[in-house]
Amino acid sequence: MLRLLIILVLLQRGVYGEIVSIHLSWTECPSTSMHITWVTTKDEIGSPIQYRSDSETEWRSAHYSSQPMPLGLPYLIHHASLIDLIPATRYQFTVGENTQCHYFRTLSDNPHATYRFIVGGDLYCGEGKGFHKMNQMAASLDPQFAVLGGDLAYAHEKLPNREETFEKIHRWIDFLSIWTRDMVTSDHCLIPIIPAIGNHDVAGHQLQTPNASPFFYALFPFPGKKGYRAFDIQEFISLIVLDSGHTHPVDGEQKSWLEETLRERSTVPHKFAIYHVPAYPGRRALSTPVSRTIRTHWSPLFEQFGLSAAFEHHDHTYKRTHPIFNNRVEANGVLYIGDGGWGVRNNKQPQNPQNTWYLAKTAKKSHVLQVTIRQEKCLIEAFDPSGMCFDSIKIIK
Length: 397
Ligand SMILES: [Fe+2]
What we know:
This protein is an alpha+beta fold.
């Protein structure tokens, strides 16, 4: 009775929390599950979730958990994992007291289906115009999901002990609310995120622990706060998400995990790595310490297990390398592509491929990559904010 009275009073005052953002990701099979995360203002007193497929009439409820936003930001984060879903099916859901429907689509589990996803990094640096413009273009490609290579919200300072400003850490909220609004497909589905961590997602940037990145780990479900994981689409596509030394060292435990993970996926035809700092930079020097460390510890494993491509970021320019094997250009080598610049303000001047042995193509452009996989064929295309495809490469497995 008392609880009912409190709820009635709160309803009268209109203090049910406002939904600030909703984003999707996966912790389990992408054909039969969906992980939904939503952020509300902190006066939320209950945030139930209901869902059903387009063809069902009855709503189902799911368990959810709630936690305060780190560092005293006045918001709550809510997580729900939906399981036992039907592959290649659109679902609708509502969260909180809001009856507005949102939508998502599970991935197909058919090896003959076409899979299409986008890749990009260095997204929102506090200036919404460039981010929003690229979002609009990226969403118009109707991707099934988005792989984000770090520096999502530029919310953290380089010095580990410096007090973080409210304005900067609030960029996590701004980033998520803009993403929620913009990243919707033509059939109204929210676009799930597979994130990697970048230096600006961590207080101190490099050689830290997960405690230095409370927002990243609170907002995106990484089992065990590892910062690295494998994302598999059945047995034909694997995305290996790595932490380029921000909250876990490149070598040691992560390197052992990478070797074991790639070995277990030896027969998977399409394998990709996603991480932030480039092994073969488009702008910075090849001798940059983190780049050298990645080439020492990860590149030989990429080569040994036949990686299709490594998606790299951080340099705010566009580059595509030649195929590289044992630090030389060889036809059976690994492609390194990307280098960030989804929504950052100023793109940087890349190196000239004519003077740089490993570079095949560079461009001073913001870009998003679109990856299309159909059976043994993989096509990677680079799009600028206007929607122009300015580079592409085919990989046959
Ligand atoms: Fe970066």
